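ok here's Methionine ABC transporter ATP-binding protein, seq below lol
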Amino acid sequence: MALVSLRDVTKTFPPSQRGGTPVTAIDRVSLDIEAGDVYGIIGYSGAGKSTLVRLINALESVSSGSILVDGVEINGLRESELRRLRLGIGMIFQQFNLFNSKTVWNNVAYPLRVARTPKHEIGPRVDELLSFVGLSDKAKNYPEQLSGGQKQRVGIARALATSPRILLADESTSALDPETTQEVLALLKRVNEEFGVTIIVITHEMDVIQTLATKVAVMDAGRVVEHGDVFDVFSRPRELSSQRFVSTVVRGVPSPSELAVLRERHHGRIVTLSFRDGNTSQGDVFLRLAQAGIEFELVYGGINDIRGQVFGHLTLALRGDPPAIDAALSDLTTTVEITDLGVTSSGSGA
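and the structure came out like this:
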């Protein structure tokens, strides 16, 4: 049984003004999140990602459909039952949401006190968590004395205080610089691997998905339009809305307007080579082109690494004897997907 299971979940908000139209933020979403997953939920702003998270921890109630968390249907639970449920769900936020009037130590201790944890257990647990996130020396500091990365590490420690099985991370690195983001992602990866916590990540950042997620769901207009293994969804998105989103974070085949610019700047035959883990490497392709006497220039694209699996698209301008180019491309098609974008007006390849 999935740890979190959604079936035909819809959430509709009433109109913002009298006579207006109700807003459907989540539209018939079905999704299974297994224990141990790091599940990324991605999409444009307004796609419904944050609303979905608020439904999972019952901060919002569903309009229709079913949500099971650890086998328990959460729709219709009494408030006292919801409080117990939320003890098993930690949450970290984009803007940290720490208590500025409390020390780091007391911020982490807060959920334990709310859960009425015996006093003699609170101290060791807080100390353990501050050590885990590398902030033992900041226990007496206040949030205003911390950097953004340190604040988020406090947020992670606090979210783990009650030993939850699920951690919800809503744009938890969006306010951080790239270096600090990588530090926080490495910490979340440890949370998943060492504690076995299932993490649901709401994000629009490719780095987060590449580094952390094992599964991903793409949302558009309140619907999950595609979901599955991160590598499969990002290397070969099937749905048009998925392709649009992936194209904003993965440089693939150039668009018509981008191709027009490339044709103005580079002469020769322009082709896009699409690489996928398990086929030939870009180094091998470059060697084979050079051995065939073909000049080539990398003009667009990039290679991506998702948890050790590599894919990407490289657009090259090829120059040389046209029959030799044809023969080389024919040879490469056995291991690399090739999109032939034609010869520029400034040259036939020679």
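fwiw The chain has a mean pLDDT of 89. kinda neat tbh
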